[in-house]
Every structure is written in structure tokens, then in C-alpha cells.
Amino acid sequence: MADRSSHSTKPIRTPLSGEDDLDLSVIELFFFAYRDFTSDPDQILEAYGFGRAHHRVLYFVNRKPGLTVAELLDVLQITKQSLARVLKQLIDTGHIVQVQGPRDRRQRELYPTGKGRQLALDLAKPQSRRIRAALESVDGSARAVIQDFLKAMVNPELRPQIDHLPSAGAISKGADE
Amino acid sequence: MADRSSHSTKPIRTPLSGEDDLDLSVIELFFFAYRDFTSDPDQILEAYGFGRAHHRVLYFVNRKPGLTVAELLDVLQITKQSLARVLKQLIDTGHIVQVQGPRDRRQRELYPTGKGRQLALDLAKPQSRRIRAALESVDGSARAVIQDFLKAMVNPELRPQIDHLPSAGAISKGADE
DNA sequence: AAAAATATGTCAACATAGCTGACATAAATT
DNA sequence: AATTTATGTCAGCTATGTTGACATATTTTT
Q1: Burial class (CB within 10 angstroms; exposed 0-12, middle 13-18, buried 19+) of A108
Q2: Which of A128, B10, B43, B139 has fewest C-beta within 10 Å?
């Protein structure tokens, strides 16, 4: 019987498994780990009527206060129309404020307010707790290895983005009022 | 001037950084790593008119052929209405077939076809390549540490799900025709 | 045997978060 | 003065999730 394009519709009963050069265990661990990693903040955000998109915006604005709209779009890799909606909500609810760029007045620098900083902290806490617990359950020296691994998973051409964030080690010297 | 709920709208200029017990570097590395990890298959799926949802269904059906709809819903943690759409497309395009459960004839066992297996392989390859490259860039003994870490990131009550997948090591004994 | 529970499917309506394309405005650059 | 750039906004589309209601076949319980 003619089956389309050389494949039959016969059910395959053998599980796909990492014989060849397939690393299925890391693939699926990554999937499950990320799913649960994002579930912590998702629950908190629900109470605010926010979603994961708001979280990402809030996170990076807190991580690099004063970043412009264009820079944020670059990090998030979404369109400005897509950003507009969530950003507007975060501004309307007083989590983020816009400041006209001091050099280039076309630019809008984005800053968290006290409220926005507090929410960012609240969202980061359960995630940090999960990470800490996971690190404790493995070797003590694992931390550097895991960071290196995760960084190596990122596209090389996009790694500069990460490096340009104020590193957890080297705190930048800005003084708030 | 009265500001709502004890917070001012004054812009905060200090970057959020991991002073307290905040593990920002792993938080953001995880975000970037997962983003790029999923971008490989996304590109392939586009050619088929499929999305990430199709990928997940196809993946787990290949990983555990014969799983029922209910089991799949359990793994994916979505509603049956949500699953219905993508599953229908995968069946219509001949990537997955349904077989009436042999014991309980209400159940629908899901199996990949040759075509569905092939696509699953094509999607897993670039992800495995990325993982392999990342593992090579770190210590050789890192593999076990990273797997343990990722597993520890998963909610304890959901870990059985992972363990019940045919592990890359112990291949189950099913014989295809 | 009848009733209840279960596994699945389906219809309709809705929400979120992404997208493209088009156009407007203000400010900077040429 | 003309052009480019940074941002904003309108309108409509898609993908993927949601809830609620209901239908059907089959199994389990009474």
C-alpha cells in the first residue's frame, strides 16, 4: 500500500533513547528544571496580574537600571510592539519609571522604583533558594562548573550580553540618593 | 506629596546584585541558556508549521511510546483541550498514531510513526550537539554533576516522572517488528 | 442489570504573549 | 534642509495556554 514519502504509519514501540550521540537525559532534565524554576515566580506574579513577560522586563531593568528601550529589546529579543504592552503596565502600576536620556533626549532610560525593586527581589528569592538547595545537593565545587556549563550553552555571539551585566562579584560604583 | 503604599516613584540607580542570598548569575545564565537551547529545534519546527508545543508532545511520545493521553497530560501539565489541537495536527500529518488500549479500550495509546521518530531525532540532534559542546568546554567529570544539579532543580514530587522515562543507560526490552 | 465513574473528544469563548505592517513624533545627524 | 534614529501607537494576526459544558464509549461499582 502506498504510504507517503517512504514512511509507514506503523506504530514504533521502541523508546527513543540516547544510543547514537543523543543526550536525552540532559535534554529532558533541562526541560523539567526550567519548568519548575519558572514556576516559583509565576505564582507570585499571578497575584499582580503579571506574567512571565513582565518578570523578564522587571528583572533586566533592575539588573541594569537606566537601560534604554532599544537595549532591553536587544536582551529580550522581542519586538517593540510586544514590549510596549507589558512595559506600559509596569509603568502604570508604578514598578518602573522612564527618564528622558540625558545625552540623547530621544532615548527613554528605564529605572525600577522602590516598588519595582521590591518585587524583583521577591521574585528572585524563591529562585535563589531553589538554586542554593540544588547546589548543596551536589559537590561543593560544582558551582563554577555549572556556571561555565550554562554559559557554554549560550550562543557565543550572545555571550557579551551576559558579560555586560553587573557581575554578582564586581558591584558597580553608583550611589543612590 | 502622597505616594501610594510607602513607595516613591523615584528611579533607583543601583543595579540589583547578588548581595543578600541572591544567586543572580545562575538565574540569568539559566534564562539565556534555555532560550538558546530551544532556539535550535524552533528553527526546524518552523518548516513544518509546528511550534514548541508540538515538539514537547512528539518528544515524550517518542521517549515513551504507548503512553496514554492522560499520562501525557500529566507530564506536560497542560489541559486536554490544549493538547487536543497539537496532537490532532501531529496525527493528521502522520507523525503520531493512536492505538486503542489493549486492556482498557477507553484509552488511546500514542505511538510515533517512522516519520515522527525521524523528526524527533532531527530535533534532538542540534540540542545534543549543543550539550556536547558545552560539556567539552568544562571539566570531563562535569557531566554527572550537571545532571545531579538539574535534577535537584526539579520539584521533588515530580522527580518520579523523570525516573520513569527509559533512562539513557537502561534500555527497555521491547522488540519492534 | 443499572448506576456511577473514568478516559477521551469536542465545542465555544477567552487570555497572554508573541508577531508583522504601517504610520507618527521628536530629536539627532548629515 | 533632509535624513536617520529612538520611541510610541494602531490594527490585526497567530500560537498556546485557559475554563466550562457536554457527548461517547467503556469500565467499575453497587
Answers
A1: middle
A2: B43
3-state secondary structure of B109: strand
- Cβ–Cβ < 8 Å for B83, B69: yes
Helix, strand, coil percentages (3-state) for chain B, rounded to 5, are 60, 5, 35
Closest residue of B to A170, CA-based?
A: B17
Which site among B3, B8, B16, B38 would you substitute to test the A interface, given the most A Cβ atoms closer than 10 Å to its Cβ?
B16
Give CA angle at B29 (B23, B35), nearest 5°.
140
Q: B52-63 and B69-76 helices cross at what angle (nearest 10)?
A: 120
pLDDT in tens, chain A (177 residues): 555 567 778 999 999 988 778 999 999 999 999 999 999 999 999 999 999 999 999 999 999 999 999 999 999 999 999 999 999 999 999 999 999 999 999 999 999 999 999 999 999 999 999 999 999 999 878 899 999 999 999 999 999 888 888 875 433 344 443
CA angle centred on A46, ends B56 and A147, rounded to 5°:
55
| Residue at the smallest CA–C1' distance to nucleotide C9 | B84
Quote the CA–CA distance of A6 and A94 in Å, as a whole number: 59
Residues in CB range of B74: below 8 A, 6 or more apart: B161
How long is the CA A90 to C1' C4 vector, in angstroms?
A: 50
For residues A155 and B36, is the Cβ–Cβ distance under 8 A? yes
Alpha carbons within 13 angstroms on the beta-carbon side of residue B39 total 12
Longest dimension (CA), chain A: 78
Q: What is the pLDDT of residues A30-45, one digit of tens each?
A: 999 999 999 999 999 9
List the domains of chain A with CATH numbers.
Answer: 24-163 (1.10.10.10)
Strand D contact with B102 (CB < 7 A): no
Using the beta-carbon criterion (under 8 Å), do B15 and A155 form an inter-chain contact?
A: no
Q: Do B168 and A27 touch (CB under 8 A)?
A: no
Own/partner long-range contacts of A29-32 (Cβ < 8 Å, ≥24 apart): A29/B147, A29/B150, A29/B151, A29/B154, A29/B162, A30/B34, A30/B37, A30/B150, A31/B56, A32/B150, A32/B153, A32/B154, A32/B158, A32/B161, A32/B162
